[in-house]
Write a structure and sequence with these properties.
The protein is mainly β and 275 residues long. It is built from 5 helices and 18 strands.
Length: 275
């Protein structure tokens, strides 16, 4: 099933998509897609629910997000484009939850930004608390999957003191969605990922090139921190990021990013310069 949240920022309502891709209001079934609901997502016939008219704004498809956890250098071909050795264990960083953004909301570059960059990623949404779980147990703790754009400011991330979290946590730097798709509909190791900027293909890749798979990532992180319902894990990006191009290509005011992952929908985001 495909779930979403729609409405003005801070006033989103839960929804489910019907067979024709139309939004059906779910607020009469659950208060929101958050907390314990994520561990037991409703199995309903969408056709029995009220149709959402028009084309409302879509928000982050899950509420109550406590953590945004990123995995770096997790595609063998991305590591190669950067001249980096593939890691022997997951590279972990955090993004501020104030970076959360709807899938089609504008991304605003921070003041003085020099090297804004895109990263299409498979996002894992945690459904139930996970602490010290095994790989065999890991998928039972996953609510579903979504598209995550790990927008980065490379000058802040890699230059000066070189802190990843600092370069990845600006407001709006975590567009998520449009949908939360349940695990039964997703083959996590056979998904195509694409990023276009102003209509030109920038990233093309496949989750088959992931170094650490979904279950391994969830199990590994659960030994470092308790994963709670609503936590989102960004699992790494394929080649084609801006800093990997020759010459490098970075985001500027007015650019449009379009991100797609097989079965998970599309993000379409306009870039704005910060004031």
């Amino acid at each position: 099933m495909r779930f979403a949240r729609y409405g003005a920022r801070g006033e989103e309502r839960p929804a489910v998509l019907d067979g024709a891709g139309r939004l059906r209001d779910l607020s009469g079934v659950v208060p929101d897609l958050a907390g314990a609901v994520l561990g037991n997502l409703p199995r309903v016939d969408p056709e029995t629910l009220p149709l959402v008219e028009g084309a409302p704004r879509l928000g982050v498809p899950v509420a109550g997000v406590g953590k945004l956890v990123g995995i770096g250098l997790n595609y063998s071909d991305h590591a190669a484009e950067l001249g980096a050795e593939p890691p022997t264990e997951p590279v972990v960083f955090l993004k501020a939850i104030t970076a959360l953004n709807g899938p089609c909301d504008p991304v605003i570059l921070p003041r003085g930004a020099q090297k804004g960059d895109w990263e299409v990623e498979l996002g894992i949404v945690i459904g139930t608390r996970a602490t010290y779980v095994t790989e065999a147990e890991a998928m039972a703790h996953v609510a579903g999957f979504t598209i995550f754009n790990d927008v980065s400011e490379r000058a802040l991330q890699l230059e000066g003191s070189g802190q990843w979290t600092k370069g990845k946590s600006a407001d709006t730097f975590a567009p998520v969605g449009p949908w939360l798709v349940t695990p039964d509909e997703v083959d996590t190791q056979a998904l195509d990922l694409v990023t276009e900027v102003n209509g030109a293909a920038m990233q093309t890749g496949s989750t088959s090139r992931m170094i650490f798979g979904v279950a391994e990532i969830v199990a590994y992180l659960s030994t470092l921190m308790t994963l709670e319902p609503g936590d989102i894990i960004a699992t790494g990006t394929p080649p084609g990021v801006g800093m990997g191009h020759k010459p490098p290509r970075f985001l500027k005011d007015g650019d449009e990013m379009v991100l797609r992952i097989t079965g998970l929908g599309e993000q379409r985001v306009r870039v704005q310069a910060g004031g």
